[in-house]
Amino acid sequence: MIDFFLLGLPIFGVVGIGWGAMRAGLVPASAIDVLGGFSFPFALPALVLRLIASQPLEAAFNVRFTRRDDPT
Question: What is the percentage of the chain residues whose pLDDT exceeds 90?
């Protein structure tokens, strides 16, 4: 469960930093459309793809199917 949380943390971190920058007035309101147009179609998918690609294949895909009561 903690691995899933740590995997998603950068995505929510980017959203939180953007929200904080808007609340603090560091980003003008006119930049919202431009930043949204870049971040959703390009930046977030690239971040998700990088996170998925950095995981070992064994962690995401188990070739062997075992029953719960199987000791091996």
Answer: 6
